Amino acid sequence: MNRWIRIPAFLLIILFLHVPAAPAAELPDGSSGTSHWVTGYYVGYQREMLPPENIDWNGLTHIAMGAVTANADGTLDTSFYIDDTSGPALARQISTLAHQHNKKAILMLGGAQNGAAIRSAVRDHRAVFIANIVSTMEELGYDGVDLDWEDDVDLVLFEIFAKELRQAAPGKIITLPGGAINGNYQTVDPQLVKVVKYVDQFNLMTYYPSTAWAGDGWYSWHNCPLKGAKSTTPVSIEDSFARYNASGIPKEKMGMGVGFYAIGYKGGITGPNQPTTSGIITGGDNSYPLSKLYGTGGAYDQQYLQWDSAAYEPYLSLPQPDSFGAKYVSFEDEQSLIAKGEFARQNGYGGIIIWTINQGYVTSHADPNFLMEALRAGFIEPGVARTVAVSINPQSAYVACGKTAAFRALVTGTDDKGIQWSVQEAGGGSISSSGVYTAPATVPARTTATYHIIATSTTDPAKTATATVTVGDAQTLAWDPGLHRMNCAEWWMEVFADDQNTITIEVEHDGELTRMDLQDYTYHGKPVFTANIQVAAGDTVIYHATAEDGRKASTVPIAFTYTTSGQILDCPVPAVTPTVIIIPGMTAVPTDPDNDGLYEDLNANGRPDFADVVLFFDQMDWIAANEPVTAFDMNGNGRIDFDDIVELYDTI
Question: If we measure between CA atoms, which residue out of 123, 283, 147 comes closest to residue 214?
Answer without folding.
Answer: 283
